């Protein structure tokens, strides 16, 4: 179909001469227009729950850079909030939540069918963006994967080694599993509602998958992703799904097949050539430029971008960073990355 959007073509397995490009955290603090809109909303969470302003910041990077995809502006921690937990952001520090560390506290979470009460404004944002997106741009919805979301619910904040979550898992595996199951069920309903509102692709962020070892990786990274993806595929068979088991290393091999994902997003700790040989042979991959290049720029950015393009040129590929863009990044470096990707000469030179 000649009119099909580029991102959807790559996700259906097509090898394109120039890959589609978008960027994790593309709406964010490195953009002055984002900071202005956040100030207008008051704070980050008020921005997430304001459908007009959230749609506006979703569209800002599309207007400025012409990315091939827009990602819904929201956060993975809205699910814990919709399940009844307190959530706030400490300026300069990050998220804080009330905690869940026992079976009784898992049981006390709000029922999954009630999450839409809190999350209705997010679906409104999706509808707003879908109505205002250029026709060639794809709208991506998202959620956190259950393990990553649970690490914040258990610790009440980000933790360097995910120690509290590992400790809860070791102390009471039944209660821990119940928490994973509750988040899994909520995530299915949340993503399904985003798709009904107009999300054309959804992405599952498992930012802390790399801290799961051995059988834990199978039980808490692969299995919840497989459960979510199979439920979504039953309801929305035509909606592609991107999985991001960050820092999975060798466990990236076969992850798409094991979970049913249409594409696996790669972090920048794996070499593009290794990933092409071992992961892309089975289907579409996304990634994986080191986000530090968005701060430092220059020839190193160009060289590394070209290396990634070359490595993945033999199969379906979506160009992206290996993790989110950081606040001190220079928008001019984002433009340089895009120009390098879209310059047809770059792969052969
Ligand atoms: O990619 C996008 O532009 C879409 C929006 C989006 C945000 N967060 C907005 C945000 C997405 C997809 C996320 C995902 C997210 N949120 C993840 C998984 C991806 C990853 O980065 O590993 C995680 C772990 C979170 C939880 C979270 N949200 C943390 C730990 C923080 C604080 C750290 C930080 O970067 O400030 C946030 C805040 C957050 N989420 C911001 C944005 C734009 C910054 C808030 C601000 O404007 O001050």
Describe how the helices and strands are arranged.
Blueprint: H1 6-11, H2 32-41, H3 44-48, H4 51-65, E1 69-71, H5 78-82, E2 87-90, E3 94-97, H6 103-107, H7 115-132, E4 138-144, H8 146-155, H9 163-171, H10 173-197, E5 201-206, H11 215-235, E6 241-245, H12 255-259, E7 263-265, H13 272-278, E8 284-289, H14 293-296, H15 298-311, E9 317-321, H16 331-342
This protein binds coproporphyrinogen III.
Coproporphyrinogen III (CP3) binds next to strand 3 and strand 4.
What are the salient characteristics of this protein?
349 residues, alpha/beta, TIM Barrel, 9 strands, globular, binds coproporphyrinogen III
Q: Walk across the major sheet and give the strand order.
A: 1-4-5-6-7-8-9
Shape: globular
- Per CATH, the class reads Alpha Beta
CATH topology title = TIM Barrel
Report how far apart the termini are: 31 Å
List the secondary-structure elements in sequence, H or E.
HHHHEHEEHHEHHHEHEHEHEHHEH
- Ligand list: coproporphyrinogen III
Amount of beta strand = 5-15%
- How many strand elements? 9
The number of helices is 16
Percent helix range: 40-55%
User: Structural class of the secondary structure composition?
Assistant: alpha/beta
């Amino acid at each position: 179909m000649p009119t099909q959007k580029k991102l959807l073509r790559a996700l259906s397995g097509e090898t394109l001469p120039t890959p589609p490009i978008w960027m994790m955290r593309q709406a964010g603090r490195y953009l002055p227009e984002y900071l202005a809109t956040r100030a207008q909303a008051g704070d980050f969470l008020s921005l997430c729950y304001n459908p007009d302003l959230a749609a506006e910041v979703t569209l800002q990077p599309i207007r400025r850079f012409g990315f091939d995809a827009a990602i819904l502006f929201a956060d993975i921690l809205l699910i814990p909030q919709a399940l009844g937990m307190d959530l706030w952001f400490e300026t300069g520090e990050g998220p804080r939540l009330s905690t869940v560390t026992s079976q009784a506290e898992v049981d006390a979470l709000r029922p999954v069918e009630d999450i839409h009460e809190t999350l209705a404004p997010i679906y409104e944002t999706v509808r707003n963006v879908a109505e205002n997106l250029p026709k060639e741009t794809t709208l991506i919805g998202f959620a956190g994967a259950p393990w990553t979301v649970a690490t914040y619910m258990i610790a009440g904040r980000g933790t360097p080694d995910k120690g509290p979550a590992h400790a809860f898992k070791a102390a009471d595996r039944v209660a821990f599993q119940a928490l994973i199951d509750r988040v899994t069920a909520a995530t299915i309903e949340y993503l399904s509602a985003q798709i009904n509102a107009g999300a054309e692709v959804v992405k599952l962020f498992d930012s802390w998958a790399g801290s799961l070892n051995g059988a834990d990786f199978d039980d808490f990274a692969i299995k919840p992703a497989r459960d979510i993806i199979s439920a979504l595929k039953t309801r929305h068979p035509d909606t592609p799904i991107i999985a991001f088991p960050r820092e999975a290393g060798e466990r990236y091999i076969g992850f798409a097949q094991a979970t049913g994902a249409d594409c696996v997003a790669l972090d920048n700790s794996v070499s593009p050539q290794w990933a092409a040989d071992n992961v892309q042979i089975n289907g579409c991959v996304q990634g994986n430029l080191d986000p530090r290049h968005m701060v430092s720029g220059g020839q190193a950015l160009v060289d590394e971008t070209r290396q990634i393009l070359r490595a993945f040129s033999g199969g379906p590929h979506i160009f992206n960073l290996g993790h989110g863009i950081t606040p001190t990044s220079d928008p001019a470096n984002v433009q340089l990355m895009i120009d390098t990707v879209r310059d047809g000469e770059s792969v052969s030179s």
